[in-house]
Amino acid sequence: MTIHETMKAAVVTALKSPWEVKAVPTPRPGPTQVLIRIRASGLCYTDVHLTEGGLIDLQLPSVLGHEPVGEIVEVGSAVRTRKVGDRVGTNSLQTGCGRCEWCSRGKMIYCADQKILMVHQFGGHAEYLVAEEAATILLPDQLSFENAAPILCAGNTVWSGLRAAEPLPHSTVAVVGIGGLGHLALQYAKTAGFRTIAITRSKDKIALSRELGADEVVGSGEELARVGGADVILSTGNGYRTASDALLGLRPEGSLVVMGAAGPDEDLVIPNRTVFPQMMVNRQKIIFSQQNGREYLHEAVAIAGRGKIRVLTETFTLDEVRTAYDRVAAGTVRFRAVLVP
Ligand SMILES: [Zn+2]
Ligand SMILES: [Zn+2]
After folding, report:
1. Burial bucket for residue 17 (CB in 10 Å: 0-12, 13-18, 19+)
2. CB 311 within 8 A of CB 304
3. Which ligand is nearest to the CA of 106?
């Protein structure tokens, strides 16, 4: 296979501006890196936050995309565990400093000196991507590229969020917001054996939520309380209001896991009538969580590889990226947009 000098990529040239599909130099792998021919690259709402600015500073120009999967087409001179032809994915975190307490503890996700896709090097919305050998994960043969891509961020986020809450075998898990993250969260919770409740105000998502594994569907935290409440509430939307409302249905010693980041101008507000007496008396927790370590990513990918997760995607070519972006920004994708270069 010939690898051309340039590749097509969706480039962010200025904040708050549409991405430009254009030719950029094809990246070359360093000694510890691999070159991946991208076969699918999921869009995440984080791409919208980054383009709009305010959450993380981008060095422009940048190529976004942190759900890339594909085949390895070239390996660096020091690469030992990956070979040309391997089907892999990678998530945003590439390396830590390797020297701090958190890197030493194997918890690179807390390192203050990380190298991450999109911010320090180009991300996956392109024909090729360079990734660290150690940051790639092998994909099960049964998992298609299109279905694998959203697991790298969305699937990893919801599964690791559920793990962070440490549910018990008999726990009830509620999912707030049935969208890109939420439709996966319902399925992960159900396939792990938990009684699963969807919280949604969209009438058109009630039947779908049941299909995806919800034992019950309710419209609010109060309604959740009326059906017995939940031990774990996974808040997956891009706003905090519904997360705060869902707290009304949290059981004693339960945890609310907030996974979707709101925009820079929205604060998480919890009314004091919820904090006291409910949350204090019942020793409830709020956990903030995003993508987490590779241990959980491995689980998320493996469960999907067993055919347990139906990833609902809409696919777009790189040339259609502006349409894909607009639909992600407007929240109208059912449920995860995937670029297929
Ligand atoms: Zn993401
Ligand atoms: Zn470090």
Report:
1. exposed
2. yes
3. 2
The average confidence (pLDDT) of the chain is: 96
Distance CA 88, CA 72 (A): 7
Mean pLDDT of 85-106: 96
Annotation: CATH topology of 6-138+311-339 = Quinone Oxidoreductase; Chain A, domain 1 (3.90.180)
**Whether the Cβ atoms of residue 315 and residue 147 lie closer than 8 Å to each other:** no
By CB atoms closer than 10 A (0-12, 13-18, 19+), residue 83 is exposed
Question: Cα(94) to centroid of ligand 2, in Å?
Answer: 12
Tell me the C-alpha distance between 223 and 213, whole Å: 19
Compute, in angstroms, the gap from residue 272 CA to the centroid of ligand 1: 31
The confidence band for 272, taking pLDDT boundaries of 50, 70 and 90, is very high
Structure tokens belonging to residue 86? 């391997």
Report the top-level CATH class of 156-288.
Answer: alpha beta
Q: Average pLDDT for residues 315-325, to the nearest whole number?
A: 97
* Cα-to-centroid distance, 42 and ligand 1 (Å): 8
Sheet containing strand 6-12, strands side by side: 20-25, 6-12, 62-63
Structural domain spans, the chain: 6-138+311-339, 156-288
Burial (CB count within 10 angstroms: exposed 0-12, middle 13-18, buried 19+), residue 199:
buried
Name residue 133's amino acid.
E
> For ligand 2, a single-atom ion, which residues have Cβ within 5 Å?
96-97, 100, 103, 111
Eight-state DSSP code of residue 16: T
Residue 87: pLDDT band (50, 70, 90) is very high
Query: Residue 55's pLDDT is what?
Result: 79
The residue to which tokens 């996956």 are assigned: 124
Q: Distance from the CA of 44 to the center of ligand 1, in angstroms?
A: 5
Distance from the CA of 178 to the center of ligand 1, in angstroms? Answer: 16
How close is the Cα of 95 to the center of ligand 2, in Å?
Answer: 8
